[in-house]
Amino acid sequence: MTEVLTRVLDGVTNGAAASVQTVARARPGLAADADADAQLHPAAKPPAALETVAGNGTAENGAARAIVLELAGISLSFGGVAALSEVHLSVRRGEILAIIGPNGAGKSSILNIISGVYRADRGHVRLKGQSYAQVPTQALADLGIARTFQNLALFPGLSVLDNVVAGRAHRVRSSFVEQIAGVGRARRERLDARARAIEVIDFLQLSALAARPAGTLPYGLQKRVELARALVAEPEILLLDEPMAGMTASEKAEMAGFVTAARDRFGTTVVLIEHDIGVVMSLSDRVAVFDHGRTIALGTPAEVQRDPRVIDAYLGVAVEDDGDVARGEGL
């Protein structure tokens, strides 16, 4: 039975990797005179660095990379029900770490602990040489952390460019008077924010849509705008809460490509929650598997997908009556 499950998982991983590589080789086709429909559905071509995405490039030398984030003995409960129990987890600089597990396993609680939304009952978060019982949310950007959420949180009436510029708000140091006058330091900050936003928009191949109201874009492109707003903050650590939720297969492959390309270009460390097993296995350098608030496995995708505890607790592969193996897209 375990051998059958392993063969299925190998197929999932290989199929997803092929999809991502196909997207990486695609041409954008966003000419200046493209019609409205073509502009609303651009074919993404992530940067050339993406060609290595299926190889999980940083996993091989990950052991030599510095620890940039550590959860030490984190426990959390709600009304006497344990959400997290003695969680120990380290994140290495420049890696893509995926957190997976069944619903209610504690995945979102981990991101909420890291981003300061929750305060742990026990344990602490180590970040930039400091230990926090609760990470200060007001200083999150200054600590080098940016986050996206499962549900979109854009300003639908503002343009794509203005939405992305908003991601630089934490860098404003000019006074209220300077901002009203629009001179001196305020002007320099505004020009810097716009230039950085344009760079990230171009990187994510949204330039043709920069002037459009974000709320008029298809869902998959709005998720890309949200990624742009997070990246414009120049985070050292990027937290992604189900970045591919609700996307089509092609949109997932595009987003996976952009996440990897962002890591490769900007050196961003990525921690993500994702339900699509194929995406996780092809995208991640390491995978942490949670069940009932505990870490039951941690390793490379190849190691995790062969772990009997993962197969039993999470993957949910079943053999049908005719002997074929049935698998859902993800959990």
Provide structural commentary.
The chain has 331 residues and is α/β, with parallel strands linked by helices. The protein has a single domain (2-144, 235-326), classed as P-loop containing nucleotide triphosphate hydrolases (Rossmann fold). The protein is 36% helix and 21% strand. It is built from eleven helices and twelve strands. The strands form three sheets. A six-stranded mixed sheet has the order 6-7-8-3-9-10, sandwiched between helices. Strand 9 (286-291) and strand 10 form a beta hairpin. Helix 1 crosses helix 8 and helix 1 packs across helix 9. The radius of gyration is 21 Å and the shape is globular. Residues 1-41, 48-55, 57-63 and 318-331 have low confidence and may be disordered. Keywords: ATP-binding, Nucleotide-binding, Transport.
List keywords for this structure.
single chain, four-stranded antiparallel β-sheet, disordered C terminus, disordered N terminus, Rossmann fold, alpha/beta, 331 residues
Structural class: alpha/beta
| Main beta sheet | 6 strands, mixed
Helix content: 25-40%
Tell me the β content.
15-25%
Integer count of domains: 1
Q: pLDDT below 50 for ≥5 consecutive residues: which ranges?
A: 1-41, 48-55, 57-63, 318-331
The whole-number mean of residue pLDDT values reads 78
Could you name the CATH topology?
Rossmann fold
The total beta strand count reads 12
Instruction: Give the H and E element order.
Output: HHEEEHEEEHHHHEHEHEEHHEE
Please tell me what the overall shape is. globular
The radius of gyration over CA amounts to 21 Å
So what's the CATH class?
Alpha Beta
Give the terminus-to-terminus CA distance. Answer: 20 Å
